[in-house]
Design goal:
Elements (H helix, E strand, L loop, with lengths): L5 H10 L2 E7 L4 H17 L4 E4 L4 H6 L7 E6 L2 E6 L5 H13 L3
Length: 105
């Protein structure tokens, strides 16, 4: 598995119109379930996300005050616009991604 550098993540946050990060932790079963649900919702919306193991991104955890894993961070034009920690259902995640996709803020 390729690990993206913190610098590249920060560059993507800055440069991309929309950027999604899914943060997980090793041996986290809740993270596995959350990613399965996110994968279904993202594929339905034809969206992609950056998958990162939070154990390797202390700077990002501090900078964005990531509280737990799993974490879904949605960025627009360099700004964190939404955080999701409770991956309630595929339907819920689909709604979150739909709002993120069409919201022009």
């Amino acid at each position: 598995m390729e690990i993206i550098s913190t610098e590249d993540i920060l560059k993507n946050i800055r440069d991309k119109e929309r950027y999604i990060i899914f943060g997980y932790a090793t041996m986290c079963k809740t993270c596995d379930i959350a990613e399965t649900m996110l994968s279904v919702a993202a594929s339905t919306r034809q969206m992609s996300y950056e998958r990162i193991n939070l154990n390797f991104y202390k700077t990002l955890i501090e900078d964005y005050e990531i509280r737990s894993a799993p974490a879904l961070l949605l960025f627009k034009k360099g700004e964190l616009v939404k955080e999701v920690y409770a991956f309630q259902s595929v339907t819920y995640l689909n709604e979150v991604l739909a709002d993120f996709q069409i919201d022009e803020h």
